[in-house]
Amino acid sequence: MLGAARMGLAGAGARPVALALPRLVWIAIALALTIPLLATSLPPLVDLPNHLARIHVLAGLATDPVLARMFEANWSLIPNLAMDLLLVPLVQWLPLYDAGRLFVAAAILVPVFGCVALHRAWWGGQDAWPWISALMAYNALLQIGLLNYVLDIGVALLGAAWTIREVRSGPLAWLLAALWGVACLLSHLVAFGLLVMVAGAGVLVRDRSSPSRLLGQVPLFAAMAGVPAALHLLFGPEGSGVGGLDLAEMIRQTFAHGLPTYLKTRVKWLVSPFASPVAWLALPTGLLFLAIIGLALLRRRLAVAPAAILAGGTLALAFFLLPAWTDNNGLVFQRLGVPLALVAVAGLRPSLPPRLAQATLTAGVLLLAGQGAATSWKWHDQERLLRDMRAAIAPIEPGARVLAVRDGTSPWHVEPQEGGAQRMLFGSIAYTHLPAVVLIERNAFFPMIFAAKGRQPLAVAPAYASLHQVDGHLSLTPELVEAEHYPPATEPCAYDPHQPVQCKARAWPIRYDYVLRLNAGATAMPDHPRLRHVAGEGFAQLYRVIR
Question: Which of these, 397, 401, 426, 394, lies nearest to 412 by C-alpha position?
Answer without folding.
Answer: 426
